[in-house]
Structure formats: structure tokens, C-alpha cells
Amino acid sequence: MEQMEHDEQPTCGKGLVANAALPTKLAELMAAQAEVLERHTRALDPADAAGNEELDAYSSLVRAHRGVASELASLAEAMSRCRDLLMGRHDMTVMTDPRGQTEAFKHFVDVERELLAYLQARLEAEEMLRQT
User: Fold this and answer.
1) Mean pLDDT, to the nearest integer, of 89-99?
2) Number of C-alpha atoms within 13 angstroms, CB side, residue 69?
3) CA dihedral sign, ordered 56, 62, 65, 70
4) Is the pLDDT score of 5 beyond 80?
5) Alpha-carbon span 55 to 43, nearest angstrom
6) Residue 27 burial (CB < 10 Å; 0-12/13-18/19+)?
């Protein structure tokens, strides 16, 4: 019973595991964007000067997107491995300082909210494009 209670207690390591979903989804999104860009290149005529320039730009962006996706996936994996991280002592004054951890967390939530609004607006526009 004591072991079960210990396993259910929140720890920083378990928090990292729970938050690994964010870089996981971002990695999937970046990989999907890379796929869209790469498939676009198939329509380009490399014999055309402008088409060749676009092909070079898109190819570079595909590599960059895949690199970012790989880094995000690695980050998520590293976070997921922290489940059993032992919890060290925390200075609660630092943790509760309104201009410290609390401010950083509020900023994080604000950015998440902005990302959600951006993605919702983008999805609406993309859904309209799909219907045409």
C-alpha cells in the first residue's frame, strides 16, 4: 500500500513525463509539414529556373523541418525517461516567487493559448481550402 501511495505522488519527473506530449505532437506536426513541402516539390520542373530555385528552397526547408522534428522527438524521449527521477529539495520561496517560476508558468500558458488560437484559425482556413 505504501509503495502504491509513493507511485501516485506527483514528482517533477512525472511532470516532465506528462509534459512530453507537447514536444511529441510538435515533432509530428513538423514532420507532417515536411511531408507536405516534399510532396509539393514533385510538381516542380527543375528545368525551369524559377522552379529549380523553388525546389532548392523547399528541399532546404524539408531538411530543416525534419531536423526540428527529430530534435523535438528526442526531447520528448528524454523527458519521458525522467519518470523515476528522484525529487530533490526545492526552495519554496523560489518556487512561489511571483516573478520567478509562477511568472514563467503563466507566460507558458499564455503562449499555449496563443498557439491554440493560431492553430484553430489556421485549421478553419485550411478546411475551407480542402472543400474547394
Assistant:
1) 90
2) 16
3) negative
4) no
5) 9
6) buried
Looking at residue 4, its pLDDT comes to 43
Does residue 75 contact residue 23 with C-beta atoms inside 8 Å?
Answer: yes
Reference 98, options 87, 107, 110; nearest CA is 107
Query: CA 76, CA 26: separation in Å to the nearest integer?
Result: 10
Q: Where are the alpha helices (DSSP H) in the chain?
A: 2-8, 12-19, 21-41, 49-80, 92-96, 101-131
**d(C-alpha 56, C-alpha 31), whole Å:** 18
Question: Collapsing DSSP states into helix, strand and coil, what is residue 48?
Answer: coil
- In this prediction, residues 11-22 reach a mean pLDDT of 95
- Bin 122: left if φ > 0, else alpha if -120 < ψ < 50, else beta: alpha
Q: For 105-118, what is each residue's pLDDT tens digit?
A: 999 999 999 999 99
